Amino acid sequence: MKxxxxxxxxxxxxxxxxxxxxxxxxxxxxxxVKGFGRQKGHTETYRGSEYKVEFLxxxxxxxxxxxxxxxxxxxxxxxxxxxGKFGDGKVFVSSLDEVVRIRTAERGESAL
Amino acid sequence: MKxxxxxxxxxxxxxxxxxxxxxxxxxxxxxxVKGFGRQKGHTETYRGSEYKVEFLxxxxxxxxxxxxxxxxxxxxxxxxxxxGKFGDGKVFVSSLDEVVRIRTAERGESAL
Amino acid sequence: MKxxxxxxxxxxxxxxxxxxxxxxxxxxxxxxVKGFGRQKGHTETYRGSEYKVEFLxxxxxxxxxxxxxxxxxxxxxxxxxxxGKFGDGKVFVSSLDEVVRIRTAERGESAL
Amino acid sequence: MDPVQTKVALDTLWVVVTACLVFFMNAGFAxxxxxxxxxxxxxxxLAKNFIVFAVSSLAFWTLGFGLMFGDGSPLVGMKGFFLSGxxxxxxxxxxxxxxxxxxxWTGVPLAAKFFFQLVFAGTAAxxxxxxxxxxxxxxxxxxxxxxxxxxxxxxxxxWAWGGGWLGTAGFKDFAxxxxxxxxxxxxxxxxxxxLGPRLGKFGPGGKVNPIPGHNMGFATLGTLILxxxxxxxxxxxxxxxxxxxxxxxxxxxxxxxxxxxxAATAVAWLALGKPDLSxxxxxxxxxxxxxxxxxxxxxxxSSVIIGTLAGVLVVGAVLFFDRVKLDDPVGAxxxxxxxxxxxxxxVGLFATDGGLFYGGGMALLLTQLKGxxxxxxxxxxxxAIVWYGLKLSIxxxxxPEEEREGLDAGEHGMEAYAGLTSRASMNVAAANM
Amino acid sequence: MDPVQTKVALDTLWVVVTACLVFFMNAGFAxxxxxxxxxxxxxxxLAKNFIVFAVSSLAFWTLGFGLMFGDGSPLVGMKGFFLSGxxxxxxxxxxxxxxxxxxxWTGVPLAAKFFFQLVFAGTAAxxxxxxxxxxxxxxxxxxxxxxxxxxxxxxxxxWAWGGGWLGTAGFKDFAxxxxxxxxxxxxxxxxxxxLGPRLGKFGPGGKVNPIPGHNMGFATLGTLILxxxxxxxxxxxxxxxxxxxxxxxxxxxxxxxxxxxxAATAVAWLALGKPDLSxxxxxxxxxxxxxxxxxxxxxxxSSVIIGTLAGVLVVGAVLFFDRVKLDDPVGAxxxxxxxxxxxxxxVGLFATDGGLFYGGGMALLLTQLKGxxxxxxxxxxxxAIVWYGLKLSIxxxxxPEEEREGLDAGEHGMEAYAGLTSRASMNVAAANM
Amino acid sequence: MDPVQTKVALDTLWVVVTACLVFFMNAGFAxxxxxxxxxxxxxxxLAKNFIVFAVSSLAFWTLGFGLMFGDGSPLVGMKGFFLSGxxxxxxxxxxxxxxxxxxxWTGVPLAAKFFFQLVFAGTAAxxxxxxxxxxxxxxxxxxxxxxxxxxxxxxxxxWAWGGGWLGTAGFKDFAxxxxxxxxxxxxxxxxxxxLGPRLGKFGPGGKVNPIPGHNMGFATLGTLILxxxxxxxxxxxxxxxxxxxxxxxxxxxxxxxxxxxxAATAVAWLALGKPDLSxxxxxxxxxxxxxxxxxxxxxxxSSVIIGTLAGVLVVGAVLFFDRVKLDDPVGAxxxxxxxxxxxxxxVGLFATDGGLFYGGGMALLLTQLKGxxxxxxxxxxxxAIVWYGLKLSIxxxxxPEEEREGLDAGEHGMEAYAGLTSRASMNVAAANM
Lengths: 112, 112, 112, 433, 433, 433
Ligand SMILES: Nc1ncnc2c1ncn2[C@@H]1O[C@H](COP(=O)(O)OP(=O)(O)O)[C@@H](O)[C@H]1O
Ligand SMILES: Nc1ncnc2c1ncn2[C@@H]1O[C@H](COP(=O)(O)OP(=O)(O)O)[C@@H](O)[C@H]1O
Ligand SMILES: Nc1ncnc2c1ncn2[C@@H]1O[C@H](COP(=O)(O)OP(=O)(O)O)[C@@H](O)[C@H]1O
What we know:
- The complex is a heterohexamer, with three copies of chain A (112 residues) and three copies of chain D (433 residues).
- Chain A is α+β, with helices and mostly antiparallel strands.
- Chain A contains two helices and seven strands; from the N terminus they run βαββββαββ.
- Chain A has a four-stranded antiparallel β-sheet with strand order 2-5-1-6, with helices on one face. Chain A has a two-stranded antiparallel sheet with strand order 3-4.
- In chain A, α1 runs antiparallel to α2.
- The longest helix of chain A is centred in the last third of the chain and has 12 residues.
- Chain A starts with a strand and ends in an 11-residue tail after the last strand.
- Chain D is mostly helical.
- In chain D, 68% of the residues lie in helices and 0% in strands.
- The longest helix of chain D is centred in the first third of the chain and has 33 residues.
- At the D-F interface, α1, α7, α8, α9 and α10 of D face α1, α2, α3 and α15 of F.
- β2 of chain B pairs antiparallel with β2 of chain C.
- The complex binds adenosine-5'-diphosphate (3 copies).
- One adenosine-5'-diphosphate sits at the interface of chains C and B.
C-alpha cells in the first residue's frame, strides 16, 4: 500500500477531491499547511513598515491507497490541481507497511 | 524504526494518548486535520441555503517508535479510539530511515 | 529521494528555514502542530480550577530532498533548532517513492 | 413650557435615556456570557441573549406589567394587561387616576414607565441565560423566559415595587438587588440544579475541570457595557431628574464597582496565584449588583465597603458553587444571586436612615431578610415548577452527542466563526468552489 | 433660565443625545456587516463602514445639507452650503429667519440641526456598504458614498423633508423608512445589480452557495447596537423633548423590533428547519426599519403587527433575492429596501389619522405609494448613473484573483486577525525573529 | 420646579450623561489597544485597560480630586480628599461656599462634578496602557496608574483647571488636549523609553519589524466608541446644558474627526501605498485629540483644518517614533502626545478670540507654548521618577521568556481565545474528557 500526499492550492481542494473519488478513493485526510517555494509571496504593510508574506496557504491531502491505483490518483491530482503558475504544489508517494481501520480492526487493503 | 500515524476522533485524543503512554511511548506530535470518508457529514443552513459539511474534524497523532512496540501501539489505539461507528479513523504504519533528537543530536532508537 | 520532517520550536522557524535554504533547499511545507514529550507544559488556572497544558505548540517542517543532501539538511536543522532545553524536537527521515511537480508534471529529483 | 411641563419633559428625558442604557445591558450580557462559554456554543448563547429581550417585551406587554404594577391585591396586580385601562400619567400622586397607582410616584407618561420597567424585566431574564448555557434547549429557554417575565418576575416585583405586601412592610430595594438580580439568580439556580452540569465539568473524586471561555475580549467589553448600563440602572431608578440623587447614586455605583473589581483581583491573585481576568470582571459586577439596592441610602464610603465585600464574596462563591457541583459557566449565581442577596442585606446594615450601623436597630435588617427569603422561596418554587413542566413536555437538555459537538451545529445549524476557526473553512471553501 | 431658554436647552439636549445614539449606529453597521462577511474581507468592510461617516460628514457639510434643507425649489434646496447663510435658530416657526426654513419647526441651534441630520445621512450611506461588500473597490465605494450623501440623498430627502413637493403633497415618513432606509436600499440595489454577485455565490442550475459570515458575535453585537441606536433614530426625530411623543415612539419602536425578531425566528424555524441567528437579527432590523415611518402615528398594537409582518417579509425577501441571483451578503436589501418600502406603505394603512384601517380611505395610502415610487425611481436612476460612471472611470470591482484572496490583502495589504487565524501567524513569527 | 432648580437639573442631566459617554471610552481604549496588539497578550491588555478605571476611581477619590480641584496654592490643591470638606454645590460663583472653589463655575452637585472629572482622569491613565503594552508587568502598571491619577495628573491638572498658575496666566485647554491627552502621552513616553522596545521589534540596521494587531474588528469598534465618547468629552466639558455651545462643540468635534480620518487615509495611501486601516483609525483619533482644546473657540472651518493637520501629523509621527526606535504598539504617542500638543498649540493660532490668525497676536500662542512645556516637563520628570522607582523595586518588565510566550500565560495563566485559536483547543479538550 502507498501513501499519496498532495500539496495543492486551497481553492482547488474540492476539485481534487472529486477527481480522487472518481478514481475510486473513498477516504482522505486534509491539513491546512503553509508552503514555501518558488512562488513568491507578497508584501504587506502595517503602520508603515513592510513585511514579506513568504509562507502561503496550501492544503495537504493525504490518501492511503492500493498500489494499483497510485498512478491514476497522481494523474487525477495533476489534472485538477494545475493552474500552470508557480505554486501549484507537489505530489509525494511513499510506502505504507500497514493500514488498520479502527472501527473494525481490519488490516491491509480492506481497511482503506 | 517505524512511524505510526493514527487519525482519530478529537474527543478521544486524551484516552489514546494515555494508552500510548502505557505502552512506553513518551513523545508524540498531534495535528488538527479534516477527514473525509464513509462517515457522512451533516447539513448546515445559512440564510436559507444549505451546504454540506463533508470534512469532519479529526486529529492526527504521529509517533516515531521502535519496531518492537509497533503492534502494542496499534492495539492501544484500536482499544481506545473505537466507538464502532463510521468515522473512527485509521492507523498507518510506515518505516523511518532515521530519527534525530535535536537537543542532543542523538540518533536512532535512543532519540525516541 | 527522501523526506525530512523536523519538529521544532515555532519561534525558530525562520532560522531553520534560512539554514535549509543555504543547503540548497528551495521548497518546504510547514504545519502548526502540538507536541507532547519530555518537555513539561505549564499549569493554567481558570476561575479557580487548574488545568495542565500538556500539548505545546511546535511547527513541523516537511522537505522532500535528494538523498545526497539529507545529511547536510539534518545538520542545518540541528544547528539552528537547538536550544539545549527539553522540547527542541526531532528530525525524522523516510523514503519517498516518487515526487511530482504539479505545475509541470516533472517527476523525480527534477520535481524538487 | 410651564414648570410642570418642564419637569415632565426633564423626567421623561432622564427615564428614556437611562432606559436606553439599561437596554444596552443586553449587549453586555450577550458578550459576557458568550465570551465565557465555548466557541462551539457561541451562536446559541448569542441567540438566546438576543431573543430573550424580544420575548420579554411581548411577555411584559401582554401580562407582566399588569401583574406587577396594575392595581390588585398585596399579592399580585390584576389590571392593565396590554397597557390597557385608565391612566392619566404623567399626573402624579393624588392627581393620578388610573390602574397603575403603584407607579404614581413618577411623573412621566405611561409609555415611559413601561419602557423603563421593561428593560429591568429583560435583565432578570437575561441573567438566567448564562447560568444554563451550553446545554439547554433553545426552545425551552425561550419558553422559560416567557414564563419568568410574564408571571414569576412580576409577582415577586409586585410584592416589593408594585404596591404589594413587602413594600408595605418597609422592604427597601431601590433599584433591584432582589427584585431583578436575585429573582434572576434564583431562577437560574433552579435551572442549574434541574439541568445538571455540562458533560465533563466535574470529574471523579471532586475534580473540577475548567472549561475556559473562548473570547475574553467579548467578556471584557460586555462587562464594560454592563458597568455603563448600571449608570442607567441605578441612577435611572429615581425615574426623575433629581439632580442631587442621581449624582450621588452614580458616584456610589461607580465606587462600589471599582471596589468590587479591586477586591476580587486581590483575592484571586492571593488565593489562586494569578489575577484571573474572569474574576476581575465578576468582581466588578458583584460590586454593581450589591450596590443596586442600597445605592440611594448609603454614603460613598459605605459603597466602597459594600463593593469590597462583594468582590470578596464573588470569588468565594465561584469556588463554592464548583465545590457543590453546581455548574454555572459564567458565574451568574455568584454575581447576581449571592450579591443580590448580599446587597439587599447590606441595606439593613448601611442605610443611613434605619441601618444597623447607623443606629437603626434590627428592624430594617429583619424586614430585608424577610424580603430576601420570601422572594427567594417564591421564585425558586415557581421556577422549579416551570423547569419541571418543560422537562416533562418538550425537554430542557440537548442530547449528549449534540452537547459534545456544540449547540451551534445542533440547535442552529451554523457556526459562530465560519472560516475563522479551522473547523469550517474547508467545508465553506469546498461549498463555494 | 427663562421658559424659552429652558425649552431650547431641553430640546437641544435631546437632539444631541439622540444624535449620538444614531452616530453609534455606525458601529452597529460595521459589526453587523463585517460579521456577516468572510474573515478575509473583514478589514475592508470595517474600513468602508468607518470611513463612510467621515466622507458623509464632508459631503453633507459642503453640499448635502444645503441641497436638502436650504431654501430652494420643490425639487432641490439651493442655499446654505458649508452651513453658511443667514440663520437665527433656535428661533422657531414664524420667528425664524434664515435660509433653512424647512427646519424651522424645531427649536434648536443650527449646529444641532445639522449634526442630527448628518447622522441620518450617514446611515443611508452605510447601508450600501454591506450590500456591495466583498467585491467592491475601496476607492469606488468612497466615491459613491460621497455622491450619495452630497447629491442623491439630499435631493430625495428634500422632496420629503426639506420643503419639497412630496412633503407638500402630504407624504408621511416620520423618521425615514423611505428617506433614509429606502434611499440607502435603492442605491444598494443598483450597486448589487451593476457589480454582479460574488464569485462562487451562484452555482450552475440555480444553486445558491451560502457564504457564511465569519463572526456571529460581531453580528449580534452590531444588531443590538442598531436596536439601541433606533431609540435615537425614531424618538429623536421629534427633535424636541416632547415627553408624550418620545415615550410612545420609544415603546412602538421597541415592540415592532421584538415582533420582527420573533416573527422572523418563527418563520425561519418553520420554513428552513432551524432558527438561523442571522435571520433573527435581520428580523429585528426589519421590524425597526418598518416602524421608522409610522412610529409616531400608530398604536402600539399596530406596531406589533407591523413588526410581525416585517419579520415575515424579511425572510421571504432573503430567499427571493437569492433566487433572482442578486447577491447581498448581509441582507441589506431585504432589511432596508423591502421594509423601508413596507413601512412607508404601512403608514397609509395603520395611521390613526388618515390610515385606511382607521377610516381614512385611500388618499394617504396613494400619497405614500407615490412617494415610494418617486424616491425609488429617482434614487435608482441617479445611483445607476454614478455606479456606471465609476465603472467606466476607475472601475468598481476588484480583480477575480484579489476577490478570491480576499480584499484585505489586495486593497489594504493587511489582515483582520493577524496571528489569530493560522494564515498569518507564521509570516508574522518569521518576520519578527 | 423653579428656574434655578430646572437649570441645575438640566445641567446635571447633561453632565451625568456625558460622563457616561466618557466612561464608555474605557471600552473604546480596551478594544483599540487589545485589537492592535497580539493575541497572546490580549488578556493582559484587556485586564490592564479594565482595572485601570477601578484604580483611577480609588486614586482620584482618595487623593487626586483634592489635589486637583481642592483649594490650595497655585501649584497644588490641598483640600477635599475623600470628597470631604465643606461644599454647597450646586450653588455657583460667589454663592458657592466650600473647598472646591475652582469648580464653582458649574452648577451641579459635587458628586456630579467628581464623577465627570473622574472619567477624565481615567482617560489619562488608560492612554499609558497601550503604549507600554506587551511587555509591562501587570502589577507595575497598576502601581503606575495609581501614582499617575493620585498625584501627577492632579498636579498638572491643577495648574490648568484647578485654580493654578497656568489657568491664571490665560492658558486655554477647554476639554484637555494638554491636561488629559498630553499628560497621558508624556507619561506613556517616559514609560516607553524606560521599558525599551518589545523583543524583535527593531532589527539590525534600523530595520523595523511590524507586529500586526490581532483583531482589527476590535480596533475599529474601539475607535467608533471613542469617537462617540468624544461627544461626551468635548461638549460635556461645558458642564452645563448650554444649547448653543454644546451644539457647536459637537459639530466641531465631529468635523475634526472626519477631517483627521480622511487626511490620514490619504497620506497613508499616497505615502505608504495602501490605505492602512490602523492609520485610518489613528487619524480619526488624532483629529479628535487635536480639537479637544480648541473645540469651543474655533470655527467649523478651522476645525476641519485642525483635523486635517492632525491626520497628517499622526502618520508622520508613527513613522518618526519607529525611526527613533520608540516602540508604541498602538500609536498612543502619535495620537495623544503629538496631537495633544498640536491641539493646544492650535488654540493660539485659530482661537477666534485671541488666536494669531484672528489678529490676536502672539500672546495667547506663547501662553499655550508655556503651558505645553511646563506640563510636559513636569509630567515627564514625575513619571520618570515613578517608573524608575518601580523598576528598582518590583521591576517593570516581564522576563524575555514570558514576553515571547505571551503575557497572558505568564501574568494571568489564561488565554484570550481558548479553544478558538488552535493553541488551546487540544489542551482544553484533553482536560475535559
Ligand atoms: N522540496 C519540497 N518539500 C516539501 N514541500 C515542497 C517542496 N517544494 C515545494 N513544496 C511545496 O509545494 C508548494 C509549491 O511549490 P513552489 O516551489 O512554490 O511551486 P512549484 O511547485 O509550482 O514550482 C510550496 O508552497 C510547498 O508547500
Ligand atoms: N484512504 C484514506 N486515506 C487517508 N485517510 C483516510 C482514508 N480513509 C479514511 N481516512 C480518514 O479516516 C477517517 C475515518 O474514515 P471513515 O471512512 O469516515 O470511517 P471508517 O474508517 O470508520 O470507515 C476519515 O475522516 C479520514 O480522515
Ligand atoms: N516519539 C515521538 N514521535 C513523534 N514526535 C515526538 C516524539 N517524541 C517527541 N516528539 C516531538 O518532539 C517534541 C519535543 O520532544 P520532547 O520529548 O519534549 O523534548 P526533547 O526532544 O528535547 O527530548 C515533542 O513536543 C513532540 O512534538
